[in-house]
TrEMBL record:
Pfam families tied to this protein: HTH_18 (PF12833), Response_reg (PF00072)
Residues forming coiled coils: 132-162
Any GO MF annotation of the entry: DNA-binding transcription factor activity
Gene3D superfamilies per record: 3.40.50.2300, Homeodomain-like
Modified residues annotated as 4-aspartylphosphate in this record: 67
Record key words, sorted: Coiled coil, DNA-binding, Phosphoprotein, Transcription, Transcription regulation
Name recorded for this polypeptide: Helix-turn-helix domain-containing protein
InterPro entries: CheY-like_superfamily (IPR011006), Homeodomain-like_sf (IPR009057), HTH_AraC (IPR018060), Sig_transdc_resp-reg_receiver (IPR001789), Tscrpt_reg_AraC-type_HTH (IPR020449)
GO biological process, alphabetically ordered: phosphorelay signal transduction system
Residue stretches making up the Response regulatory domain: 15-133
Length: 544
């Protein structure tokens, strides 16, 4: 063991600060310390206590070797200042010419590790470094013991959290386990009948995490840290319990002593504390109970298992009955889905000129979605559909695909309505950048392209389309290519051939019926263009 400690010391040299006003004495003590470069690194020398204090603040040495009597601030006053800082304290060795017990007593009060007479050091040149080596060994042992103690405490707290979590999850599945768990709440001091208590559901904002939720070891560490922050925040209540759930989610229960008024936690302060201590954002909801623990089960179950508890609200308190209503969602009616798809798409297209329409549509959709309590997954699908349709205008196919994949991944992690909206807008702006400065989306052209995608059977004419949006044919052609990256004829032909290929492979329609469905005037024209684009006839393509 001694060998291991010495190796650790050698690998991490002990940093030493020397404070001595007399130059000859400082030179001698410097030589003693530098005689053991295998163990010690002299990081600084000071002529008085004030300089020594400044050097301590900057250099943070492990050991301070100091004289007592010096001009200005003396050594003992310097050590008092260091003691008052409250930092992890260095080992302190006091060198003095005084054998007076008065000085020794002050040194003891300042927790000096050693009190050496200068004459003894001069008589035994290795006394100072021998003393420092012994202190260094003690420091290494203390550090090791402290680390072991911290690991044991962490394992104990982690074990308690895991047990608490297991008991809670088990009671969600089994009525018998629920009765046992509620009984443990009574034993912890929660009110059996009446009284006031509250449950807090807190979830880390996935957008502020510095790791992926799929990194289980990293997540477990932060779950532990978050549970401890929440425990600390609820520690002032006579009864409190913290359950660490999955994916950065926590459930905290608390109640005041019966003789004290119940004051609910300030959720804004709690969220700010998570940001301060963990450097992460969080969402929080609070449900206040005015009945005993026997009736908490259904409410806690809804809180713990809700998929989107923060989608339309966060940082608010409610009664147990209100909390139950919050987690019930309704389907988005299909007509409303089509309407909002159109409105959002138009607002995104217009955002090139101004963000005002986009902000207005976001506020209106949020208001209606919240009032109707529409399904969060369907809101995500609505935004996803909008972006997918707009991505058709980009010629950079590979980069657009990568962007769409990243967008879907980000969309899955969105916990709130506003995160869904902002993620979609950010992706749309990246999409627009792919088009380059020379190309922008024209809202009128975009609407015509949408119509083409929805119905290819129409005999679209360049002249008629240009007239429908009050553009001249040359200007329409230029704007169409600027928007889509392809000329009108090439773009329309590609759409028709791609749709024909899909129908040939997935339906039993006859070839002439497919030609008519995708807008070709006759079978002969369809056959000729299909072979030109694919290198084979429609019949060969279907057989192949």
């Amino acid at each position: 063991m001694r060998f291991m400690l010495r190796r650790q010391i050698i690998m991490n040299k002990t940093r030493v600060l020397l404070v001595e006003d007399e130059f000859p004495a400082r030179t001698v003590f410097r030589g003693m310390i530098e005689a053991r470069p295998d163990l010690f690194e002299l990081v600084g020398e000071a002529e008085d206590g004030r300089d020594g204090l400044e050097m301590y603040r900057t250099l943070k040495p492990h050991v301070i070797v100091t004289d007592i009597t010096m001009p200005g601030m003396n050594g003992l006053d310097m050590l008092r200042e260091i003691e008052s800082m409250g930092d992890a304290q260095p080992q302190k060795i006091i060198l003095t010419c005084h054998q007076d017990f008065h000085y020794a007593k002050q040194a003891i009060q300042l927790k000096a590790a050693s009190y050496l007479l200068k004459d003894d050091c001069l008589s035994d040149p290795e006394l100072l470094t021998r003393t420092m080596e012994e202190l260094t060994t003690q420091m290494a042992t203390l550090d090791r013991d402290r680390q072991k103690q911290q690991q044991m405490e962490q394992q104990l707290r982690s074990g308690e959290l895991e047990l608490e979590r297991s008991l809670f999850l088990e009671q969600l599945r089994s009525p018998a386990a629920e009765a046992q768990w509620l009984s443990s709440l009574r034993e912890a001091g929660f009110p059996e009948r009446g009284g006031s208590a509250a449950a807090i559901l807190l979830e880390l904002d996935s957008g502020s995490l510095r790791f992926s939720l799929d990194q289980l070891d990293e997540l477990k560490l932060w779950q532990f840290a978050g549970a401890n922050v929440l425990k600390e925040l609820l520690g002032g209540y006579s009864a409190h319990k913290v359950i660490s759930l999955d994916k950065g989610r926590f459930l905290g229960l608390y109640a005041a002593a019966p003789e004290l008024p119940f004051v609910p936690v300030n959720l804004e302060h709690m969220v700010q504390s998570f940001h301060t201590f963990l450097k992460m954002n969080a969402f929080a909801l609070q449900t206040v109970f005015d009945r005993g623990v026997g009736e908490w089960g259904p409410v806690l179950r809804r809180l713990a298992t809700s998929s989107y508890p923060f989608f339309y609200s966060g940082g608010r308190s409610s009664t147990a009955d209100e909390g139950g209503k919050r987690n019930r969602f309704e389907d988005v009616p299909e007509p409303m889905s089509r309407l909002w798809t159109k409105r959002l798409k138009q607002a995104l297209l217009e955002s090139r000129l101004t963000d005002a329409p986009l902000e207005e549509e976001r506020a209106a959709l949020y208001r209606q979605s919240k009032e109707q309590h529409w399904q969060p997954e369907q809101i995500k699908a609505l935004y996803g559909r909008v972006l997918l349709e707009l991505s058709r205008f980009t010629a950079e196919a590979e980069r657009t695909t990568n962007l769409e994949v990243e967008y879907r991944r980000s969309l899955e992690q969105c916990q709130t309505f506003f995160a869904v909206h902002d993620t979609t807008v950010a992706c749309f702006r990246q999409l627009r950048e792919l088009q380059g400065d020379s190309r922008s989306i024209d809202a009128s052209i975009a609407e015509l392209v949408r119509r083409m995608h929805e119905d290819l059977s129409c005999p679209y004419s360049l002249e008629e389309l240009a007239a429908s949006v009050n553009y001249s044919v040359p200007y329409f052609s230029a704007m169409f290519k600027k928007t889509t990256g392809e000329s009108f004829v090439v773009y329309l032909t590609r759409l028709r051939i791609e749709k024909a290929k899909l129908l040939l492979l997935t339906t039993d329609q006859k070839t002439f019926e497919i030609a008519e469905a995708v807008g070709f005037e006759n079978y002969r024209s369809f056959n000729r263009i299909f072979k030109k684009e694919t290198g084979m006839t429609p019949s060969d393509y279907r057989r192949g």
